[in-house]
């Protein structure tokens, strides 16, 4: 969490100036996903669950470790509240070269997440062999391969695959309420 401010500032600076930014880590599944989720939380005002849900529609193998999930959950609370508030005041809802595209893509991934596509069983049970599961921090993602929303203007990576979330008991994404 101590690097969130520096990373968010760098990513936003790149995007505001018409550039792009590659965020990577050793395997591209934990640290990089956490950094991008923190950016989406600050700049686009989404909750950590929604940010990870969106990222997983684009990058299939994200698996933030338990410590990083806790950091995302606590980002904006406790001692980090001042940092989060500073970042949201500075960057929240500000235009970026891809701002509209990101908002469209997040809306699209949220619409693709239908309650009828969630599983009520745990990882390894049920559809063995037809879907792949991974569980992390109480979240269980079911990966399926089919076309996404297909809307023009989305990056190809957003259209290639969709992922459905096995919801923890009592949690429903904001877009499905």
TrEMBL record:
Keywords: Hydrolase, Protein phosphatase. It catalyses: O-phospho-L-threonyl-[protein] + H2O = L-threonyl-[protein] + phosphate; O-phospho-L-tyrosyl-[protein] + H2O = L-tyrosyl-[protein] + phosphate; O-phospho-L-seryl-[protein] + H2O = L-seryl-[protein] + phosphate. GO terms for cellular component: cytosol; plasma membrane. PROSITE patterns: TYR_PHOSPHATASE_1, TYR_PHOSPHATASE_2, TYR_PHOSPHATASE_DUAL. One of its GO terms (biological process) is signal transduction. PANTHER family: DUAL SPECIFICITY PROTEIN PHOSPHATASE 15, DUAL SPECIFICITY PROTEIN PHOSPHATASE DDB_G0269404-RELATED. Signal peptide: none annotated. InterPro entries: Dual-sp_phosphatase_cat-dom, Prot-tyrosine_phosphatase-like, Tyr_Pase_AS, Tyr_Pase_dom, TYR_PHOSPHATASE_DUAL_dom. Residues 2-62 form the Tyrosine specific protein phosphatases domain. GO terms for molecular function: protein serine/threonine phosphatase activity; protein tyrosine phosphatase activity. SUPFAM superfamilies: (Phosphotyrosine protein) phosphatases II. Pfam families: DSPc (PF00782). Residues 1-81 form the Tyrosine-protein phosphatase domain. This is Uncharacterized protein. The keyword Plastid does not apply.
